[in-house]
């Protein structure tokens, strides 16, 4: 079997990919991704997930033999900042798809001139916590409001953080 291939989504290709990935998630995986029970994807929410503009809302999909197995997205939240989110169908979890998508997302964020990515993970989502730690070394984690909030300087995606980078990230003056 061939490995996943990642490509950018647009408004025309996103609906089929969103539907396929959502359908490939168990109820538990949907809860971990959306932080709430999500037995079905409402039309309004689907429209929000597929309304891609190429800059302030972008998404990439991982496919295996033409079948979507994961999606990662960036949504602008402020000047130079974007929220990231990832979903991988149950059958392909823990097989490197999430890491591939996060790596591609960080590269895309740099291309689009984002300087910082952030995202919320439920503490019980131990697989995602491990994924973020492994794929985004140096990401800052803060437990707040029942989630783990990660912040990641995009420049770190292009090389290992220096000692000075790490000190700046934890310094109260740097924020």
Describe this structure in words.
By secondary structure, the protein is of the alpha+beta class. The chain has helices spanning 14-23, 27-34, 43-50, 97-111, 126-135, 163-170; strands spanning 5-8, 57-64, 67-78, 81-88, 116-121, 140-144, 147-153. It has one domain (5-174): Gcn5-related N-acetyltransferase (GNAT) (Aminopeptidase), CATH 3.40.630. A seven-stranded mixed sheet has the order 1-2-3-4-5-7-6, sandwiched between helices. It starts with a strand and ends in a 5-residue tail after the last helix.
SSE topology sketch:
Elements: E1 5-8, H1 14-23, H2 27-34, H3 43-50, E2 57-64, E3 67-78, E4 81-88, H4 97-111, E5 116-121, H5 126-135, E6 140-144, E7 147-153, H6 163-170
Parallel strand pairs: 4-5
Antiparallel strand pairs: 1-2, 2-3, 3-4, 5-7, 6-7
CATH fold call: Aminopeptidase
List the strand order in the largest sheet.
Answer: 1-2-3-4-5-7-6
- How would you classify the helix and strand content by structural class? alpha+beta
Portion in strands: 25-35%
